[in-house]
Design brief:
Length: 114
């Protein structure tokens, strides 16, 4: 497990904050998904992101997303610790637990290993 770089941590913190404060649920999800991509290698941040996703799903009364997030909360830290996570995955229940996805260019620049 590698330490998160200061630029990646700053971006994660901004995305998580926007995930709480964006004006629409769709925008909140987009920010939480971006934070998820950044957080995947880091057990605590990864788990914290899924807890925030669960909170949003619960406020929307989305049972499927809520259940998906409970499962992801359970596997987030072990997946991060073992390095077994699908890079670029948005973390949503509809994304699939093991489905890798393209990483947005601006995030790839920040999270790429040195």
């Amino acid at each position: 497990m590698r330490a998160i770089t200061p630029p990646a941590r700053a971006m994660y913190d901004r995305e998580m904050a926007a995930g709480r404060t964006a004006p629409t649920a769709q925008e909140r999800w987009r920010h939480l998904e971006r934070a998820h991509i950044i957080s995947q290698p880091h057990p605590w941040l990864h788990t914290r992101n899924h807890v925030a996703m669960l909170a949003l799903a619960l406020t929307q009364r989305d049972r499927g997303e809520s259940l998906g997030q409970v499962i992801r909360i359970i596997v987030a830290a072990p997946g991060s610790l073992s390095g077994r996570y699908p890079e670029g995955n948005t973390g949503r229940a509809s994304a699939g637990l093991t489905t890798p996805m393209p990483i947005p260019d601006d995030l790839a620049e920040i999270i790429s290993p040195e």
